[in-house]
Each structure stands twice: as structure tokens, then as C-alpha cells.
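re the bet — no i am not wrong, look at it urself. input seq straight from the record:
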Amino acid sequence: MNKDLTVGRPETVLWRFCLPLFGSIIFQQLYNIADSLVAGKFIGEGALAAVGNSYEVTLIFLAFAFGCNMGCSVVVSQFFGAKEYGKMKTAVSTACIASAILCVLLMAAGILGCGGMLRLINTPEEAFAGSKLYLDIYIWGLPFVFFYNIATGIFSALGDSRTPFLFLAASSTANIAVDILFVTALDMGIAGVAWATFLCQGASCVLSAAAVFSCLRKIENQDDVRPFSFLIFKKIAVIAVPSILQQSFISVGNLVIQGVINGFGTGVMAGYSAGVKLNNLVITSFTTLANGVSNYTAQNIGAQKLSRIKAGFRAGVRLVWLLSLPLFLLYFFAGRSMLRLFLEHPTETALQTGVYYLRILSPFYFIVSVKLVADGILRGAGRMLHFMTSTFTDLVLRVVLAILLAKTALGSLGIWCAWPIGWTVASAMSIFFYWVGPWKNAAGSKDQENKEYRLP
């Protein structure tokens, strides 16, 4: 069901839109952690290290898919908010064609270069074959990853967060079941984990794409729809390219950090692999909710209702802080138990690595969550230079400090300390960029606000 995010009380509208997104977060993370969970529990610590090592490479491909998602979603949101439905449909077609070309290029690069990338990050010999096998299968499923992200971006742009939630819930639940079937009953090992993800992503992609195009056909438009528009492509690229660069550089930075971690052996690799999955559950949750804020911002900018954006920021911060508190308590005090979900017979090195990682990072969830909400508004408003500046600051600080601190007496413990420093500095920058945005003085009178928020 499509939802106009430019009318109604901002906090109520944003929370109702974000609640299905929160449900999607849970199932998306089940999707992401299922491979590591099954590998660690049913194959062994070495398999967990291999899948976790591969995961850092897959994030580069996901960065491109996420960038296409954001570029399409923000532009479609702006046209939807402005009620320019012909241009909105042209934007969808343009995004699909451009994404297909990009996906083919990435598949070719992945097939030819993944082995070299695994060598580049110092993958231990005992984990190399498993990592390479997982990636070889994963790359052939990239079209599913791309077009699923495009479909969910369109749904979000139309204010519909419920439909992609239903598809993702079904797909992620099936992925866990197929993972276990392929690994235990069919004894396929790491290949079974990869093929399960391939099949379930494929089914989810086809169903989501069919649903989104069915939805678009029901929206009547007065102006013409073209298969491809270079002008609209430029609008999409202005959002997508910085998002791709941001996510790609983060992924490359994570690969550099992974290379530093790999030098400490498979025990530390396995502990980090389990810990980073749990941490990514949190960060992806914040990011997904921030994407909802981006759609909210883009629709209201399209409708020229800047005074609603500050209320959206406050509502977004309250939402992510409600999420931060239980996750902080869970990870800080029960991290060891959470890590055992991934490790059947863990070494003390693996467990201790994961515990230190979670205890150092989790208190700073309250800070980084605010950064991501501010980033959501900056991205929805198309202020990509500010968005990228704070993000790259975070990345550079984390990578440089991880390399330097790993060489001190702190060892691997020093690597984990780089996260809070990068988060804190970058958060201050994002909040400042939001604070000086064009919505700063946009609040109207009380009568105007009441009229603006009233449902039709």
C-alpha cells in the first residue's frame, strides 16, 4: 500500500513507516547471519572464519547494490512527493537499465578478481579454499541482489514498507531452512551455505520485482513515460555514485582491517567474524531506519514542506535510541552467550576476541545512531558532499587507527578501539551538517504546522 509521507503528524507518519522496516531489519539480519551461524555450528570454526572472510568481500558488491537502491529510492520519492508520476516511472526504468549494466560489469570483475582479493587481505591458507568457493557461487547471484534492492527501494519511495517486509520474512526464513538442509542432510559444506543463499535471494528478487511493477501499473500518469532518460539518470547518479563510493570505501577499509585481523590467526578471525555479524545487525538496523528517514525527507522536499524535516529528525533519534538501549545491554552483559550462537566448540581466543569487540563498541551505539539519522536526512535532501565528508572521516580514522594500534602492546584489542573514535568524530560532523541545513529556519507558525500535518 502506497503512503504519502508529506501529510499527517511527522512522528506518527515516520514511526508507522519505519515499523515494518524494523521487522525487515530482523529478517535481513537473519538472512545475513544464517550462513555464518550454520557454518560455525554445523561445519566448524574454520568454516566460520572462511565465510566471515568472504563476507567482507561481498560487502563491496552490496555497496553497489545499495547505492543503486538509494539513488532510485530518493529520486522516485521526490517525484512521488511532487506527484509527477510519469517522471517517477521513467526514473524506475532508467534505474533498472543502468543497474543491469553495472551488475554485468561487477560479475565479470568478481569472477576474474576475487581470488586475488582474498590473497591481498592475507587470507590464511586453511581458509582460502572455503572463502573462494563461497564467493564463486555468490557472484552468480548478483543480479538477484541488485534487482531485489531496486525493488525494495521503489517500495520505500512509494511509502510502502510492508510489502518488502513480507517478502523478506518469507525469504530469510526459507534461507535458514535450506542452509541447514544443504549442510546437514546433503553434506554440501560451505557450498551448501552459498547455494542456499543464491536460491532464496533469487526467489525473493523475482517475487519483489513482479509485485513492484504490478503496483506501478496501477498508478495513473498524465505525462509520457520513457524507457531511459539521461537527465533523470544524472539525478539518480548524483545520489547513487556518492552512496556507492561511500559504501565501497567502507568495504575496502573493512578489507584492510580484515587483513590486519587475519595476521592474528584463525582464532581471532573466527571471534571477529561472530562479533562483526552481531555488530552489523545493529549498524544495519540503524542504517535501514535512516533509509526510512531519507524517503521521508525526499518526499517532503518534493512537496516543498521543509518544516517537517526537523520533526522527522527528532522522531528518528527517539526511534534509534529505543533500539540502542536493549542492544547495548544485551551485547555488553551477554555477549559471550550471543557469540556461542555462531561457535559450536569455540576456542577461548575466539570467544575472548568477540567479547572484547562487543564491549568496546556497544556503548557507542547511542552516538553512531544519531549520525546515521542525520546522514539519512542529508542523503534524502541530496546533500551528498556533506554526507560523504563525515563518512570518509569515520572510515579513514578507523582504518589508520586500526593499523597503528594493532602494532602496539594492545594487539588485536587496539583494532576494536578504532571504531568508537571514528564514530564519535564523524557523528559530530554529521550533526553539524544537519543543523545548518536549509530546513534550519523553515518552521512556520503553529497554525501553518497544524494545517500541514492534518490528514486529508
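see?? The radius of gyration is 22 Å. told u. also Residues 41 and 344 are 5 Å apart (CA to CA). so pay up
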